[in-house]
Design goal:
306 residues, alpha/beta, Rossmann fold, 5-stranded parallel sheet, 4-stranded parallel sheet, 9 strands, 15% strand, globular, binds phosphoric acid mono(formamide)ester
Length: 306
């Protein structure tokens, strides 16, 4: 499970429908299924994470798997062990799946070729974050009752965003109308070729939107100043209450987190009645349970899942 680009609408539908039944389990008193009893999963994170790592861990545990977490700062990676040797070491322990986040684009694809366990990409550089793309689709459908024909405005730092790439790959397949806007330095123009509508003014993208997704400004991936100051960014590109009013009244606001509140999104919008940012986190657990189930129990027949 490396990226959403190769998935058909039917394959995405299978994941979303499976996640729907998983969400019901999250609301039970005893959140435990025997589906993955006897399976072992390692999460291998070379970059920080709160939502993705924790939700993959909980998803595995709720399904009865044994889950072990490795982070770069507390493993032999700090002693200089290479990615290949780290993967070989984990493989030697006969694990069934490795959930992996790495700063290098293509790291998960490399791992999938190098070792036998199922590899799930939990984010590789600015390339892909497929489970986030899926949980966004799930959240939109859960709240809006449909996907086809909805207008989504994706705002901000698209250049560095693996979330935006996975969103666009999945949302195109599921029939959403995708609009993007942000500083010219942060909105790659090749998106035009992919059928995405690119705006310079975020107001034009927001106009009449059913869904707005605000992206995090990824200062840690920026080598030079790609916008003047965060105050200027907030003034011209931040989602505030006034700009929100340009969208449909029942517009859904998403953000993958963590948020730079006061920069890309105002606190009053982040915690408004339109916000589904907390639901995204809950749905992330359900979607990751669905992925584990499909990948580790033979439910997925297409090799794109692997
Ligand atoms: N959305 C997301 O990937 O968040 P984390 O970095 O906290 O996992």
């Amino acid at each position: 499970m490396l990226a959403l680009g190769g998935f058909s609408a039917a394959e995405i539908r299978l994941i979303l429908d499976t996640a729907k039944s998983m969400k019901e389990i999250l609301h039970r008193d005893i959140k435990k299924l025997p589906t993955l009893r006897g399976k072992s999963i390692v999460t291998l994170f070379y970059e920080p994470s709160t939502r993705t790592r924790t939700s993959f861990e909980l998803a595995g545990k709720y399904l009865g798997a044994d889950v072990v977490n490795i982070t770069s700062s507390t493993s032999s990676i700090v002693k200089g062990e290479s990615l290949r040797d780290t993967l070989y070491t984990i493989e030697a322990m006969n694990v069934d799946a490795i959930v992996m986040r790495h700063k290098a684009e293509g790291a998960a694809a490399y791992a999938a070729k190098a070792v036998k366990p199922v590899i799930i990409n939990a984010g590789d550089g600015a390339h892909a974050h497929p489970s986030q793309g899926l949980l966004n689709l799930f959240t939109i459908e859960d709240k809006k009752g449909k996907l086809e024909g909805l207008k989504i405005a994706i705002l901000g730092d698209i250049l560095h965003s693996r979330v935006a790439r996975s969103d666009i790959a999945g949302m195109r397949k599921m029939g959403l109308n995708i609009h993007v806007a942000g500083p010219r330095t942060l909105v790659p123009r090749f998106l035009l070729e992919e059928g995405v509508v690119v705006h310079d003014r975020i107001e034009d993208a927001i106009e009449g939107a059913d869904v707005i997704e605000v992206l995090r400004i990824q200062l840690e991936r920026m080598k030079g100043g790609l916008f003047p100051t965060t105050r200027e960014y907030a003034r011209i590109f931040g989602l505030n209450k006034e700009r929100l009013s340009l969208a449909k009244e029942d517009v859904l606001v998403l953000h993958p987190g963590p948020m730079n509140k006061g920069w890309e999104i105002s606190p009053e919008v982040a915690y408004s009645i339109n916000s589904a940012i907390q639901e995204e986190v809950e749905n992330g657990v359900a979607v990751r349970m669905a992925l584990f189930t499909l990948l580790l129990t033979g439910g997925a027949t297409d090799d794109k899942f692997n």
